[in-house]
Amino acid sequence: MEMDRIDGNILRLLQENADIANARLAEQVGLSPSACLRRVARLRRDGVIQKTVAVLDPARIGRPLTAIISVEFTRHGSEHRKDFVKKVLRNGAIRQCYLVTGEVSCILTAHMRDMDEYLAITDQLFDSDPNVTSFRTYIAMQTVKDTASLAL
User: Fold this and answer.
1) Phi, psi of 145 (to 5 degrees)
2) Who has the most CB within 10 Å: 121, 131, 137, 143?
3) 123-126 long-range Cβ contacts below 8 angstroms, 24+ apart
4) In the CATH hierarchy, which top-level class contains the domain 58-139?
5) CATH 1.10.10.10 fits 5-45, yes or no
6) For 114-139, how does the pLDDT look when each residue is reduced to its tens digit (9 = 90+)?
7) Does the global pTM surpass 0.90?
8) What is the dihedral of CA 21, 27, 30, 34, to 10 degrees?
9) Which residues are CB-contacts of 83 (< 8 A; sequence separation ≥ 6)?
10) What residues are paired with 107 via a beta bridge?
11) Residue 136, phi then psi, degrees to nearest 5
12) What are the sequence ranges of the domains in the chain?
């Protein structure tokens, strides 16, 4: 899909505020409301806009403990990871999961209520999985940047 400057402006504005009214969005990008609505619909249809969500503050909803966890697998084939991936997808505390190249196999980001929840996650995801060789956890002391916006 080819995007032009107007598409980029629409995406930039929607990343800042997805609740913006279509008439206001159209005004800011220099289009009629109907033309703007068609462009946004096309961006959704083409998968550029994957979904619209509310971004919550983990601490304000009782999940102040943020952990970044690196995981090493014994075997790397998809058949060996499938049980781990299923458990990650079911776990509400896990916000992000990346299968990566390099010294580790996987990187997770989790937002938890407390250390008890962290220990339960380690038992469920790591200690009970024979394909997990090791894991290392980094507890976030301060969030400097956490954005859903992408550079355009």
Assistant:
1) -150, 130
2) 121
3) 124/87, 124/91, 125/71, 125/84, 125/87, 125/88, 125/91, 126/71
4) alpha beta
5) yes
6) 999 999 999 999 999 999 999 999 99
7) no
8) 50
9) 129, 131
10) 70, 98
11) -135, 135
12) 5-45, 58-139
